[in-house]
TrEMBL record:
<protein>
    <submittedName>
        <fullName>Acetate CoA/acetoacetate CoA-transferase beta subunit</fullName>
        <ecNumber>2.8.3.8</ecNumber>
        <ecNumber>2.8.3.9</ecNumber>
    </submittedName>
</protein>
<dbReference type="GO" id="GO:0047371">
    <property type="term" value="F:butyrate-acetoacetate CoA-transferase activity"/>
</dbReference>
<comment type="similarity">
    <text>Belongs to the 3-oxoacid CoA-transferase subunit B family.</text>
</comment>
<keyword id="KW-0808">Transferase</keyword>
<dbReference type="InterPro" id="IPR037171">
    <property type="entry name" value="NagB/RpiA_transferase-like"/>
</dbReference>
<dbReference type="InterPro" id="IPR004165">
    <property type="entry name" value="CoA_trans_fam_I"/>
</dbReference>
<dbReference type="GO" id="GO:0008775">
    <property type="term" value="F:acetate CoA-transferase activity"/>
</dbReference>
<dbReference type="Pfam" id="PF01144">
    <property type="entry name" value="CoA_trans"/>
</dbReference>
<dbReference type="InterPro" id="IPR012791">
    <property type="entry name" value="3-oxoacid_CoA-transf_B"/>
</dbReference>
């Protein structure tokens, strides 16, 4: 069961999805985004080879139909299946409109770290490097701070970065940032969050672009 903070972030990320887009959802918070997308003309893609991913009820689970995180998924009417090489060709060819990724850290240049923690054995990079290069727009969803209260939006990532490509939008439970002209721009505060709280919880410098 996802926690309220994750649900809040996913719900806000869903507002970034537009009609007719092909969307790739990463592991973690991004998997929650689909249930908040109200537009039926949106096509969810998974890099293991499916276009037309939808949620699935427990009684309808087919163990052979899973997303890239090996979680059970359903098939939309008109969905299609293809091999992983074709799926990555789709990504690298620029045919994914939006990638929504979960990350460990993001730096002042909106570069992300999401695949390795030194000294720990975690799942690995998956399709993130390819999505960062090939997706037209990249959105990251993350908690603003670590469990010990330290900022995850840093001047420089302390974990290995995933790609030199900067992401476009960062969504946390505290704020929304866009990366514009080489700088992070704070464009929105989440409900009941103040500017002072964001400043205190963000190591990276940013432009206050609140309206």
């Amino acid at each position: 069961m996802a926690n309220p903070i994750q649900e809040l972030i996913a719900k806000r990320a869903a507002k970034e999805v537009a009609d007719g887009q092909i969307i790739n959802l990463g592991i973690g918070i991004p998997t929650l985004v689909a249930k908040y997308v109200e537009n039926d003309n949106v096509h969810f893609h998974t890099e293991n080879g499916m276009l037309g991913v939808v949620g699935v009820d427990e009684e309808d689970i087919d163990p052979n139909v899973v997303n890239a995180g090996k979680m059970p998924v359903g098939e939309a009417i008109g969905s299609s299946f293809f091999n992983s090489a074709e799926s990555f060709g789709m990504i690298r060819g620029g045919h994914v409109d939006v990638a929504i990724l979960g990350v460990l850290q993001v730096d002042e240049q909106a570069r992300i770290a999401n695949w390795a923690v030194p000294g720990k054995n975690i799942i690995g990079v998956g399709g993130a490097m390819d999505l960062l290069i090939g997706a037209q727009k990249v959105i990251v969803t993350m908690t603003h701070t670590s469990k010990d209260g330290k900022s995850k939006i840093l001047k420089n990532c302390t974990y290995p970065i995933t790609s030199t490509r900067s992401v476009d939008t960062i969504i946390t439970e505290m704020a929304v940032f866009n990366y514009v002209d080489g700088q992070l721009h704070l464009v929105e505060l989440m409900p009941e969050v103040t500017l002072q709280q964001v400043e205190a919880s963000t190591e990276a410098s940013f432009v206050n672009a609140l309206k």
